[in-house]
Amino acid sequence: MKYGKGIQQLPKNLRKLAAATMEQIPASSIPVLSKKYLFHSRYEKIKSFLKDPSEKNILVSITRHMTEKEINSLFKTEIKKLTTAFDSDELQPAFFSTLDYVMAVDYQTYLVDDILQKVDRAGMSVSLEGREPFLDQRIIEWAAQLPMEYKYRNGQKKIILKDIVHKYIPKEIMDRPKMGFGIPIDKWLQGDLKSFVGEFFDENYIEKQGIFNNVEIQRLRRSFYNGKVERAEKIWFLLMFQLWYERWMK
């Protein structure tokens, strides 16, 4: 929600103009910034924020990599939308403050479907059973009832936890910028994995498979290798599906 408030305060016409301008300027053509990690993905998300700066859309945009329209365009037939916490009757922005809404949805989407999945797979690959003490039911219920100022204040997150840890660990260690575990997907797809893309995105393979819209798959593939680096994540997801399909469904 870093940019949410600022974008919400912009006049609607200015937002529409900015979004339309960004549509005409590919992320890859922007000097310096285009070389930064995940810039292309963030560029696309900001475009979505500008088009619809509601809390729900901002949260959906942050967590998704393709719109429903883009997903459906990839398949031969329209696919049924998967119901998630974003569609819950109970988890609606009107019932929560912005940050409470974000955290409530996060618990039921990103946490269980991404973070915990990765931890479990990584641990079990070496027969290690992971434990997450902060996810104890009692802690979750207690933390959910805390006033927001104890959790987020002036851009600082995890206020209580940091106050405790600062007693034992120097601030210069704890307060460093967060560092993720990003991987250079675009470089892999242009290098060592290019042959895999060639094999599993091959027109004959796609046609015989009968799942995807061949025209759209080839358009996506060409645009990526013609410089649309922001397409890398979409290519990656499709390639992972193709490898899974080849291994388990044939």
Describe the overall structure:
The chain has a two-stranded antiparallel sheet with strand order 1-2. β1 and β2 form a beta hairpin. The radius of gyration is 21 Å and the shape is globular. It is built from 15 helices and 2 strands. The mean pLDDT is 87. The protein is mainly α and 250 residues long. The chain has helices at residues 4-8, 12-24, 39-51, 55-63, 68-74, 98-108, 110-124, 137-144, 159-165, 171-174, 185-190, 194-200, 203-209, 214-225, 232-248, and strands spanning 152-153, 156-157.
Features:
mainly alpha, 2 strands, two-stranded antiparallel sheet, 56% helix, 250 residues, single chain
Helix content: 55-70%
The number of domains is 3
Give me the number of helical elements: 15
DSSP summary, beta strand count: 2
Largest sheet: 2 strands, antiparallel
Gyration radius, rounded: 21 Å
Largest sheet, spatial ordering of strands: 1-2
Taken as a percent bin, the fraction of beta residues is under 5%
Uncertain runs: none
Distance between the termini: 42 Å
Short note summarizing the structure:
The protein is mainly α. It has 15 helices and 2 strands. It has 3 domains: 75 residues, no CATH class; 90 residues, no CATH class; 65 residues, no CATH class.
